[in-house]
Amino acid sequence: MAEDDRRTIPEATVARLPIYLRTLADLAASDTATISSERLAELAGVNAAKVRKDLSHLGSYGTRGVGYDVEYLVYQMSRELGLTHDWPVVIAGAGNLGQALANYAGFGNRGFPVVAMVDTDRSKVGSRINGVPVRHLDELEDIVAEHGDIIAVLATPAGAAQDVADRMISAGVTSVLNFAPAVLNVPDHVWLRKVDLAVELQILSFYRQRHADATATATASAGNGEPAATGTG
Amino acid sequence: MAEDDRRTIPEATVARLPIYLRTLADLAASDTATISSERLAELAGVNAAKVRKDLSHLGSYGTRGVGYDVEYLVYQMSRELGLTHDWPVVIAGAGNLGQALANYAGFGNRGFPVVAMVDTDRSKVGSRINGVPVRHLDELEDIVAEHGDIIAVLATPAGAAQDVADRMISAGVTSVLNFAPAVLNVPDHVWLRKVDLAVELQILSFYRQRHADATATATASAGNGEPAATGTG
DNA sequence: GGTTGTGAACAAATTCACAGCG
DNA sequence: CGCTGTGAATTTGTTCACAACC
User: Fold this and answer.
1) CB B117 within 8 A of CB B90
2) Are A162 and A233 contained in the same domain?
3) Which of A65, B10, B124, B218 is the most exposed place for a label (fewest CB within 10 A)?
4) Is beta strand B191-194 parallel, antiparallel or unpaired with respect to B175-178?
5) Closest chain A residue to B45 measured between Cα atoms?
6) Domain range holding B49?
7) What is the distance in angstroms between the Cα of A202 and the nearest Cα belonging to chain B?
8) Do A87 and B201 touch (CB under 8 A)?
């Protein structure tokens, strides 16, 4: 079954694997050898049945009556997530957000070295941000040629995002993480994920607003729309 | 039906409303009076049936044979999302990411003014970043007292996130957007959303890896695991 | 004719509950 | 006896397809 499922790990599961991995890495660092689905669930903020089902998609790596071997799970999950080698990243847009991302230790540390930033602003091109060279957007093809299969992180203004994405893709990029507040159209062979800061705040605003409405109008009645939704995934 | 559904807009729909709203605001700015579900779907990157079902949760604001009135929809959606007034935001952590977020125009512009940053680093406290005062974490209670019901954006290191969240919550905060790479535990009455940059890259890495495996091992056979998943939600 | 609004069909994800194994 | 792994049940979300309406 495991071998079969290899081809069909559900999207929802894939989105949780990195959380498990981070949790497990912490456990390994604190010399925990084994962990139960119950405890891992607690640490990862999900429920135990979900953990077991998620992990079962990777294969049968647990021991009944005991739990999962932490080190081994870390190894298998890293392999599964393709984290056994680094993936070079190029950040498009050397504005505030782009610079922050270039400085963000979480990237390089976790196997995603930022090899370059690109921008069209000639006054920025040629400088370095946190050691990362800022190059002109026109050099994109060269950068891809130098580093191979890079991941593009878009931190441009909304208006420029589609153009830059198009150029990235025609230069050979197949993975894009979009921070620009714009909907991107990409061909089928390109993987796209998006992070929209304003959208997240607006979602919070919705639930908050709802709550205000509910408590204002009805001081009676039991609680309906409960909070504590953990979004993004 | 619409009145009934008011209380139960599906989570998946709520997560899309901000995208529709942004799209509609753009249309309004370019003097488009009416829009069909088909066209809105195209611009928002979803399918038309989904748009219609999503909008039906807000009420019957469309006209058969014609489409939706853009201005009116913008108004209704803003109201629904609680965007008719500003929601003050406090950013915890005046590091790279926190500073970038404070500088990020998308926040203040879209009704989420950053009223303060908090940090424990005395060398930062007292300064201003993009006009936003940096105050000490200990002043949190005062800030909440000054501005009322604020939204907390956590941009602290992972290790500090739970502590800061706890302090935010005991100061009265009920909405938290977490950028720290850590799983937070919050009480039931607090709304939590999270954005994890490294997680997003790892998800891209998974699909990319899969693709590499597939094309490497089998040069034959039709395409299975197709790309172009648009994540985050 | 064109487009919405929505039941019904379908698909994905979650949760339950327990057999099976260590 | 404890904990995994997984079928079955349930819930949630998506898509279809068409009647209702302008």
Assistant:
1) yes
2) no
3) A65
4) parallel
5) A183
6) 3-80
7) 7
8) yes
